[in-house]
Design a protein that fits this description.
Number of helices: 16
Radius of gyration: 39 Å
Largest sheet: 13 strands, antiparallel
Strand content: 25-35%
Distance between the termini: 169 Å
Structural class: alpha+beta
Helix content: 40-55%
Amino acid sequence: MEEKKLDLNSIIGFVLIFVILLYVMYTNQPTPEELKKEQTTEQKAVEDKVNNDPKGAVVAEVPAVVSDSLALVQAQSKLGAFAYSSVTAKEGETILENDVLRLTIANKGGYITEATVKGFERIKKGSGELVQIIKDNNAQLDIELQTLDNKLLHTKDLVFEPTLTEADGNQILSLKLKTSETSYLEYSYVLKPKEYMLDFTVRTQGLSGVLNSSKSLQMNWNMETYRNEKSVSSENRYTELIYEFDGGKDDYLGQSKSDEEEVSNVTYVAFKQHFFSSILLTDTPFEKVQLKSENLVQDQTVDTLKTKRFAAQFPLAFKGGEVNYNMNWYYGPSDYKILNSYDRNLDEVISLGWGLFGWINKYLFIPVFGFLSGLISNGLAIVFFTIIVRLLMSPGTYKSYLSQAKMKIIRPEMAELNEKFKKDPMKKQQETMKLYSKAGVNPMAGCIPALLQIPVFYALFQLFPSAIALRQTGFLWADDLSSYDSILELPFSIPFYGNHISLFPILASVAIFFYMKMTTGDQVMSQPQQEGMPDMASIMKMMIYISPIMMLLFFNSYASGLSLYYFISNLITIGIMFVIKNYIIDENKLHAQIEENKKQPKKKGKFQKKMQELMEEAERQQKLKNNK
């Protein structure tokens, strides 16, 4: 077979084809103008993608052909300098945990998304479901960032870079929203062992050329409070927004209705959920705070999920071109002992009553009850606490009954005076006062002990529903002394009563009926009817029946621990009255003493002299008027 040879014509042909290919490739290259146009088109596509992102974040969807620096430049069209963090940071979460608290902090927004209080169960003991003050995005922290180019950004939409460290047993989480490696907005959380309180700092570094420092940053804290207790009505009643201002004053809003307020120089704001609280404290008082509370419970007989919606807006002022606020968060039980231990006036979060009532609770009842509950169960502690209180007040009970007995003895003489001077009220009043003076009877002696019981009644009325020690504590048939002791659930709701029947309020109502029947009967008969004055005897007779009914209606949905106290208290008082009446006071001896007092000259005190002079002057004026 003949071998094929490469001739000159073939070589010339290949050379010509190669030259033509080079020419075509050279002529098809884009010009510098075309390259610039292509780059602009590609950049525009990235920018449109950023602007159309509903969350305002640039993530890893930027095409690989565009460099990181180009992505950052394009992201700045939406986020400004804070696009640096949006490119470098990633979404995720960090957990801070100690023996009493578990917190979850999200990178996006940098705020706490879950706060679980250990050792406390929700709704019912034994459920295994721990109380979560924050969950399912029911609370948010957001700072509005006003940039120099008039862009308004929200930290809740931006991604922070987390750094978790530990020092001296403290867990320290730093979350930075960066514009560069050396300029950023930082949230810092520090959780200490066995503490419900954590340190929280908000500060900026090197952002004077990015943010508009002529205006304060606006920090917004919002929360919808989850229901954690058995009784919706009771929990909602004590779920409220409490704040401290002007160096120690405190106030609240939204206890039973929606409300809003603007307050200056605020040092803490508490979102209280009856037995659990979220509190934000600051070392630097907030100049002007907007507070709002909205009631979410429309029907207290319906099993609802949330009770209140709280909102607070705080200004973070620039100083020296930067923001630096040292604050604290408290997530934990509304326990007087724990809150008072921080020495930040947080005990005011607990509803113990104002003025004298709060003083009685803080310095008398809480220490005594705390001591008893440390020795025995809380139910028995209430019983022994009631016995102590009633014994301390028994001298007043004795004086009250003694006054009633004296009034009963002089009742016939008072009836004679009423008949003799029924046409002369002024003279009748004068002679009645003389009779009181001669017999040594003080008609007010029976009222004073009753008045002294009012502070005790109101103080305990505030104490028991606020005592977290009673939460989910059982006694007899009651499974939770901080809530109602239902023995029967009704298929309907009775107005002012509820959809269940509680036993302790029934027992307390029966006891108060017999107590008032015993104490009010003689008092009614001994009170003379004054002409032109209301019939006090009829009013007091009505109160014998009205008081137990009011007790039954009002306390049916209230803390059963309080109803237990009033039941035991009235039983003890009935017993004390029985002993006084039958074994201490002898009415025959008392009658003889009164007769002896009448025979002896009675020295009048200054008050009695003044009263007699006034009455005589009034009588003289009346006679002059009649003569004219």
